Amino acid sequence: MRYKFCPKCGGRLILNENRELSKPVCTSCGFIFYQNPTVGVMGILIRDGKVLLGKRRRGNFKGQWCFPGGHVEWDEDVYEAARREFVEETGLNINITAVYTVLSDYGSIHEQFRRLHNLEQQNAIIWFLVKEIDGKLVAGDDIEEVEFFSFSEVPILAFPTHEIVLKKLKDEHLIL
Ligand SMILES: [Zn+2]
């Protein structure tokens, strides 16, 4: 249980064990605190067999690389979120051409890689294939450097899910 107090009234949360999946419930107002994974969106831009990655500027994974992307905001369309995150981090405006894959960054992924994405956060991530429209390639927001890599050139990646997608791109001959 990640939270102790009700976000609506400040009452104490307890776990309601009567339900199939136990969820925190407020002892004052009855509010059920749903704890669901959030939605992440990532863009895959390939140029001449190389894929665009960004180097993280801060946080626990500072200095490690990842695909450009981020979280979908409340009330934000997932495609719009992917375009917004991509231009914020890379300076490039993009069109989304296809959904490439969808992954959960918890559960079996953790067991398989034996390293954690983030215990405090669980995400369902949608990976989009994208095409450039315009803009100038320049790192922004939480990213300090952007660069295209072939598979063998890729530096240390921040997250297991990103490694899975990178390998899939290589296996399917989408990158060199
Ligand atoms: Zn409450």
Structure classification: alpha+beta
- Top-tier CATH class of the largest domain: Alpha Beta
Order of helices and strands: EEEEEEHEHEEH
Query: In CATH terms, what is the architecture of the largest domain?
Result: Alpha-Beta Complex
Q: Could you say what the CATH topology of the largest domain is called?
A: Nucleoside Triphosphate Pyrophosphohydrolase
Bound molecules: zinc ion
Radius of gyration: 19 Å
Q: Total domains, how many?
A: 2
Distance between the termini: 44 Å
Q: How would you describe this structure to a colleague?
A:
There is one protein chain. The chain is an alpha+beta fold and 176 residues long. The protein folds into 2 domains: 1-35, Ubiquitin Ligase Nedd4, Chain: W (Single Sheet); 38-171, Nucleoside Triphosphate Pyrophosphohydrolase. The protein has 3 helices and 9 strands. It has helices at 78-90, 108-113, 160-171, and strands at residues 13-16, 23-26, 38-47, 50-56, 65-66, 69-71, 92-104, 123-135, 143-149. The strands form 2 sheets. Strands 3, 4, 5, 6, 7, 8 and 9 form a 7-stranded mixed sheet that branches. A two-stranded antiparallel sheet has the order 1-2. The radius of gyration is 19 Å and the shape is elongated. The protein binds zinc ion (ZN). Zinc ion is lined by residues 6, 8-9, 11, 26, 28-29, 31.
